[in-house]
Amino acid sequence: MPVVDVQPDELRRLTGHEEKSDEEFKDDLFALGLEFEGVTEDGAFQLEFGPDRLDRLSVEGVARSLRYQYGDARGVTVPKTNDPDWTIVVDESVPEERPYVTGAVVRGVDLDEAALDSLIQLQEKLHATMGRKRAKGAIGIHDLTMLKGDVLSEQSTGNAITYTGIEPDGDTFVALDSNEELTPAEVLEQHDTGRKYADLVSEYERYPAIYDEIGLFSFPPVINGRRTEVTTDSRELFVELTGTDQWTIDRMCNIICYALAARGATIEEVEVEYEGGTVVRPDFEVETKRVSHDRIETVLGVDLEMDEVIDLFERSGLDADAELGDETVYEVSIPPYRVDVLHPLDLVDDVGRAYGFNELEPRYPDVGTVGQRHERSRLEDAARTALVGLGFEDLLNFHMISEEENYERMDVEPGSGSVLGGGEPTSITEPYSEDYTMLRTWVLPSLTMVLENNTHRAYPQDLAEIGHVAHRDDDENTRVSEARHVAAVLARHDATYEDAKARLATLCNDFGVELETPATEHPSFIPGRTASVVIDGEEVGIVGELHPKVIVEHDLELPVAAFEFDLAALQ
Amino acid sequence: MRLPESQVAVLNAASATDERTIAQLAEATDLKPETVTGAVFDLRDDGLVTVTETVEEDVELTDEGVEYADDGLPEIRLYRAAMDVGGGDAVQMGQVIGASSLGGPQVDIALSNFARKGYGHIDSGELVPDADANPDADEEAAALSALVAGETVDTDVLDQLESRNLVVRHERTIRAVTLTDEGVTALMEGVEAAETVDRLTPEMLTSGEWEDVEFTEYNVEADAPEVRGGKKHILRQTADRVKDVLVGMGFSEMEGPHADADFWINDCLFMPQDHPARTHWDRFALDVPPMEDIPEDLINRVRSSHLNGVGDDGDGYHSPWSEDFARAVALRGHTTSLSMRYLSGHEVGELEPPQRYFSVEKVYRNDTLDPTHLLEFYQIEGWVMAEDLSVRDLMGTFEEFYSHFGITDIQFKPHYNPYTEPSFELFGRHPETNELIEIGNSGMFREEVLRPLGVECDVMAWGLALERLLMLMYGFDDIRDVHGTLCDLDLLRETEVLR
């Protein structure tokens, strides 16, 4: 979940509530769904929240939400915008993988250190969330005074920059935090930031590039040029965003613009000139969705007056117009910084938050159902109870295991399907740890590992586990054949085949099934002391004395008798 | 007073004025000395007699010692033979040995002691006796004779004889018994004999003999040897408890595959395909072919839900949606995949409201393994399907559930999940520490989830890690001690059972 650092002093200033203590803020923020996680070295609150309200990824957005909560602000507000002076021309050679661009000009910004830090944090957090680590959308913020616009035409007074695509070594520029003229390809190899984001564009035929009249000044989504770097002295900004989805970058742009507007800046539109037509950005259009009064009452479980509902909408930063009829329906206006409203129900949630969910009186649902355990779960439970009655310590091991433990150390060949445990592995594509690369095909490897890790504990060690096993089987719809196995080991100085069989026989007797144990061979067991577990005529497992090489492999110094079979045989 | 027969006999044979030893009492009572000893101790414990103990040493001749006492010590026999043969001059060894009639190991014994005790010396196969030596004054020989006669012997000589294995010394505790005042009183008031037994035998039961006996008292406070039985794993016990509670609340258990298509795990849940949790970092993708059999109409409805949303005013995600990705098979990251299968009608047929379902089963997360996080853990998952459910119903259900685990004062923190709205993180007071702790995640399934599945009513759901509940309730610090192959058997053996 995203974490945003917010200076409580900034919060006081931006909300206008100088009197609020840190503790009061923490409670108010918790009510908004922002959880206090701690403070940073320089005293900022670290606030964690669900990745829906991405407009709260900066102190400006958090302050706005608090102002609504306090009732200082109501309804939808849209920053005033000035007419466009600048144009972003999208050249036909723009990389087809990253065709979209948007932007805004912001004038009259007053960036002190705190404001600049907040802007940089907002940019980074938006990259990490909506921007999908810059793959879907990347933001570049430039000092406008360092840009020299192309003259579009003789009639126009406006300026233009161009979003285009160039050969990887097609031009050079000096990137941020660098002193060298580098080509984009060289940036990917030599610059720290370039290396970090190289994967985003390295497969592209042409690299994204933004030009003004002077030349190349930005290499999105990787890095900006040094020429247009924003500092606390910057008073006018050019914000550009490139990405793979227009809506996404437009909303990211809106969130940036709202944050800057909250600090008194003026937003100026830009024109984006695509081959197919020109659009004006930022897109501050207010969308509407319709939600019925009845639905709100049903979801919250309370009766509400219409005025009350409209008030709650406005306190959420929304506007609502009631349409009276057979049923009351609200047409709700949604501000353009909201990225989380996909359905009218999301608006009901806002009403609930404004009402205060914790104000609602819990009630037990007035519907009757009859509960029961699943048949498989009952069987497993009965078998486990029987094993415990036989003196086994019930164990619980991981379903994931390494091939070495599952096969090699048990002396079993992968893909020797006729042997218990020899099924094809269900392998994890990109294992995180070499200890967990596949699902276990049988349970005994886990139990012998437990024996191996507990040689310092008192014997006898009689252990059992009823657990999940799986092997690859392309005939299954999931491509994986899953089962539950009953497995047990008796590690004691005088353990014999007979000890294992005796317990197995008792278990079978408990479940009223017929056990036969014809002689067989299994690589993990001593020849001549190994039998198939045949239950009601079907071969379902193995019983015997573990082979000394398996015992020694697991650093054990005493005999181990064991059995394992498919739980379903006890059904 | 009734006492066991042996104790009565001993009591009668003992005196208040004279000390009687065990041996004397045994003779007087005609009981075995060990029986008398046992009776004496029991009487002492009852305060009827006092016992004084002295330690005495018994010296016993070994077979070899007896032989030398009769025949003389080998070195003296050798000396006398040498004097007889040579009259004090050096004599040939063989000649002397023949004359002494010593044989076997006695020769070596004689030779080694001959020189040691100054009877002469041995020089190049010749024996030179010391004519001045006096075998009649030999201390060891004298001591042997004295021991035969039952006389005491000087300790130094006794040590010497013991080192030659001619005697064995035993320490012996002599117990002397005297009647106490209580003992005298008891005797005067009359003591009757009662039979006692150690063990109740089958014969006693069948013969009826048990009616006439008294049972020896045990020290019932003494430690008994440890007996180890098996028990259910503590996490299973916790799971059972959760299942009991949920079944009691009307929930039925779900069951389904651990390896499943992303379609069931994530797409049905309205998780956008470019959601961070769906990247390879968090997910255990399996190296198997994609799942083929997914109902085509369901796929189309889910795709539409992602791309266009649900309803007139619904928006989809501004993210690409690929059917190939949906069909890819992975280990489930939550058991909500089961909920999707059940709600879609593909597990137990179309469900009509009301319904309650749950599962307590394993899920897999590609997370860092540490004391509180496992790569695989148990998720408690539950949902309620009904017409017109409200947030209040959801809250009431959770209050009921958590109250069974001692967690009360539940707080509902508004939260975001891609698949529920409204959503809540649940917080409750820890029963021991009173700390506010996160105890689950919940919400009402979105219409974008339900409508493609064909569900037209409301469904509320929640989830929680079983391990978290266990750790909260029973205070384990490191979940790896109980779950997995690194588990500590002693910890499992000593963990209290759940009740």
Task: Describe what you observe in this structure.
The complex is a heterodimer of chains A (571) and B (499). Chain A folds into 4 domains: 3-70, Phenylalanyl-tRNA Synthetase, Chain B, domain 1; 81-281, 3-Layer(bba) Sandwich (Phenylalanyl-tRNA Synthetase, Chain B, domain 3), CATH 3.50.40; 287-358, Phenylalanyl-tRNA Synthetase, Chain B, domain 1; 375-570, 2-Layer Sandwich (BirA Bifunctional Protein, domain 2), CATH 3.30.930.10. Chain A has 15 helices and 29 strands. In chain A, strand 7 (150-151) and strand 8 (159-166) form a beta hairpin. In chain A, helix 4 runs antiparallel to helix 7 and helix 5 (184-190) crosses helix 6 (192-201). Chain A is elongated, with a radius of gyration of 33 Å. The two termini of chain A are 45 Å apart. Chain B has 499 residues and is an alpha+beta fold. Helix content of chain B is 38%, strand content 23%. Chain B is built from 20 helices and 18 strands. In chain B, the strands form 5 sheets. A 7-stranded mixed beta sheet of chain B has the order 10-13-14-18-17-16-15, with helices on both faces. In chain B, strands 1-8-9 form a 3-stranded parallel beta sheet. Chain B has a 3-stranded antiparallel beta sheet with strand order 2-7-3. In chain B, helix 1 packs across helix 3 (33-45), helix 12 (234-248) crosses helix 19 and helix 14 packs antiparallel against helix 18. The longest helix of chain B has 15 residues, at 234-248. Chain B starts with a strand and ends in a 5-residue tail after the last helix. The model of chain B has no long low-confidence stretch (mean pLDDT 88). The interface between A and B is large, with 98 and 102 residues.
